[in-house]
Specification:
The chain has 148 residues and is mainly alpha-helical. It contains 4 helices and no strands.
Amino acid sequence: MDRVWQIVSSFEWWFSVVVAGLLLNVLGSYFRGSIDKVMSSAFRNWSELSEKGRSRRRTRVERAGQEMAFLVALSSASVHTHLRGAVLLLLGVGLTTMTRLTMADPGPRFFILASLAGGAVFVGMLDIAAAINLYTDVREAANVRDDI
């Protein structure tokens, strides 16, 4: 605690804090307009993409509600995506276990296994999220149909 008090009470620390604060303030005010333009463009693109996605989903659900073959294909795609996600999650867990076994020698093999494990888990989670979305579409389309 005495060491921290010495650092905080030193002139160099206060000078560096003041200079860093002033520098950040000047840079922030200089780049503010550019940052505002970039962020507004990004949020506008995000909302446009979200609207396109909702439109595609509505079209997919309406088509599945009208065509039985498309409903079956959609439910098959949901099951396929879910199984692929589960396999990738299991692969990621297996690679994580192998990574832990090679931790004694953190060479290139360790980093390759860790990267593959993280990628497999990430893609597996994305696949399971996509499968849940497809399953929701199948349920909604099946509720529209009266012959199921």
